[in-house]
Task: inverse folding
């Protein structure tokens, strides 16, 4: 994300571009272990799975995100806005704790989806950004099979939407407990949204990275991934309603 990366034969990851001779050696090595990278860019299973190398790639992605504070603006601002709206809603129905818990369930479900959707800009940059920065060929020179490159990119995005969703949901539950409406909740009514958050986060990360793999620009990848929100938003709300057995209001 903003830098090209290289993994040497000893397994270390470095920033920057490799020499021409090193690039040729890496291409030959990658071609011998993972097959040709040309043609269909979909991740394929090839070679032995090396979780250590995948995590090194993921940690490199994390470090690139941490260097740019601008990436954290949506992960902080969006959940914060929803938490403020939840607090205002609880204040408006402070005399009716049952209605307050109904609103809380809604915000828990929305945070599951919104937190997961924050993966879109980072996931869209995963491969399409490499193409725009002309570091796509360098990435393909890494001595890693394509499936491990894909998993490493997904894991490089996953912690950020997951933390945003969980932190927002915990703060919403704290507000509900302070308001007194949490005592009207069944355990699974708030456990289910907490479990839904990592599932949706992983799905959106994988989807956005896969679309980024197929796209030539970051903007195009983000737009295509964003279209899935139109389908998943009502599905999440209705699914939460069906699980809890109570209506969820928007």
Result:
């Amino acid at each position: 994300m903003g830098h090209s990366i290289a993994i040497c034969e000893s397994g270390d990851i470095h920033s920057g571009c490799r020499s021409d001779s090193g690039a040729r050696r890496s291409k030959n090595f990658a071609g011998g272990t993972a097959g040709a990278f040309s043609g269909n860019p979909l991740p394929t299973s090839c070679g032995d799975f090396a979780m250590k190398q995948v995590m090194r790639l993921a940690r490199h992605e994390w470090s690139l995100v941490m260097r740019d504070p601008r990436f954290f603006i949506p992960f902080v601002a969006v959940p914060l806005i929803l938490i403020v709206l939840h607090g205002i809603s609880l204040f408006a129905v402070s005399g009716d704790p049952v209605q307050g818990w109904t609103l809380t369930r809604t915000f828990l479900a929305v945070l599951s989806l919104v937190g997961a959707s924050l993966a879109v800009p980072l996931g869209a940059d995963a491969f399409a950004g490499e193409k725009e920065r002309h570091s796509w060929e360098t990435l393909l020179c890494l001595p890693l099979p394509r499936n491990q490159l894909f998993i490493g990119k997904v894991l490089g995005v996953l912690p950020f939407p997951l933390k945003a969703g969980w932190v927002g949901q915990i703060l919403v539950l704290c507000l509900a407990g302070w308001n007194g409406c949490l005592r009207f909740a069944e355990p699974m009514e708030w456990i289910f949204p907490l479990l839904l958050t990592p599932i949706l986060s992983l799905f959106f990360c994988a989807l956005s990275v896969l679309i980024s793999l197929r796209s030539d620009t970051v903007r195009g990848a983000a737009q295509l991934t964003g279209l899935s929100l139109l389908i998943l938003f009502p599905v999440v709300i209705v699914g939460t309603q069906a699980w809890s057995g109570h209506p969820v209001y928007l």
In short: The mean pLDDT is 76. The CA atoms of residues 43 and 215 lie 14 Å apart.
